[in-house]
Here is the input.
Amino acid sequence: MNDRAKEAPESGRFAPHCLSIDLEVGIKDRRIHQFAGVRGDDGRAFIFDSGDLDVQLAKLDDFAEGCAFLLGHNLIAFDAPYLAAAKPDLRLLELPMVDTLLLNPLAFPRNPYHHLVKHYQDGQLKRGRLNDPQLDACLTLEVFRDQQNALRVLRQSAPDLLLAWHWLIAADGVTAGLNAFFMTVRRRSRPTEAEAQTAIERFLGGRGCLNHARAILAEAKQHPWALAYTLAWLSVAGGNSVMPPWVRHQFPEAGILVRRLRDTACGDSDCAWCRDRHSALKELKHWFPDIPSFRAEPAHSDGRPLQQCIVEAAMGGEHVLGILPTGTGKSLCYQLLARKALARRQKPLARRPR
Here is the structure.
């Protein structure tokens, strides 16, 4: 029997009116070989493992009747396009979509691998066994439940962050499902752009350069997900959290935004963040309190000590080659920079994973 409805694991009180779906696609032929749909409201499952794919997809469409949204892990980039290619007239593809892969780094910034295989480029779900789409569809429901519970906590602990995400990633038809999700979590409609920008500036106070933040906000609609993941990481910066490899791979702008906000001096003498975080002399006093200042000689043509010039250039992200006479303090330059780098070892890398 190719299609069958049977009971999936109980989800307790959590019973979203959705269809959680997972596909198994051939690596070589790129065709759908298996799929499963599990209803979140009553736990029933529809499973296909052989037979006429077109016929079974039509039956899946009927099985999804009454669902309010479609749920999946990597649904938007993977499952939905394959379903659309196999049967473009599926009614279920018109449902709002919620992708748990995209939500995971927001819900669990301290542990972005919650329910995921660590370091996997695409953020694959942990599995008890391979090639079991019903199991994966059930796991997706579990992840979604955990995400919803985690984000509800932010209503009290970080309302500005929750508001910012709602505005950033629920802006168009593709993310209509996420808009409904955040409306449920926040108990508010999607905020206006002015409300979101105010909340983001308020959130970034003390976490980054506000001058860079305002410039980034002016471009926010060009990279909404990257900014959302940047804010998520900044919410736990100082701990052991990292940006997952799949985030850095799919949204490389996120690492760039972090560097702009935290590691690039804006040049404004009135900027408290940059004045505090990008002062070579302040870093010297912090890490080497017994050394009152950089050596006056050798000096740059502008009169600044060359030690200071080297450290400031490196702190600004420039490539540096420092050539100084023996005994004039080259070691201090790299030791100061190394200590600063080690203290910020939690910084997310912007490079793409191998």
Observations:
- The CA atoms of residues 284 and 336 lie 7 Å apart.
- The longest helix spans residues 133-157.
